[in-house]
Amino acid sequence: MNRKVSLLNQYWTDIYFHLHYLHKEKISHQVVRILQLVDKQDEIGVNEIASYIQVSHNTASEHVKRLIEKNYLIKRRDPLDERKVILCLTGFGKEVLHRNTSLDEEKLEQVLNQLDDNEKNLVEQALKILSDRAKQCM
What we know:
The chain is mostly helical. The protein has two domains: 1-20 and 103-138, no CATH class; 23-102, Arc Repressor Mutant, subunit A. Helices cover 65% and strands 7% of the residues. The chain contains seven helices and two strands, in the order ααααββααα. It has helices at 3-19, 29-40, 46-53, 57-69, 91-101, 105-112, 117-137; strands spanning 73-77, 85-89. A two-stranded antiparallel ribbon has the order 1-2. Helix 3 packs across helix 4. The longest helix is centred in the last third of the chain and has 21 residues, at 117-137. The chain is elongated, with a radius of gyration of 18 Å. Keywords: DNA-binding, Transcription, Transcription regulation. Residues 1-132 form the HTH marR-type domain.
């Protein structure tokens, strides 16, 4: 593997390890992936979830049912095609996803306060470039 790729992965895991939120909910990695998919993509249904997490439609449907029961997701009908069900994050689902995938903003702010303005700009620019390119990979 390319040394730079390995270094970037190590930096990312170090950053996440030290700056993530303490997790309140017992939530599986698969549930996090489902919530991320619903958050990051438009008009996600059970079929897209099944394909994304590589399970059967019935298994994905059971996952969705449990996430609705936990108030992480809601179903709504597509206004253009009433037969189609679209999944959306609830406000609580957005909070759970944020706590399980984002950096703790207070911890991050403490780190950023240790940087000068030039360093802050470099970090922001680098992460924006990586984010933009990552979105093109989908």
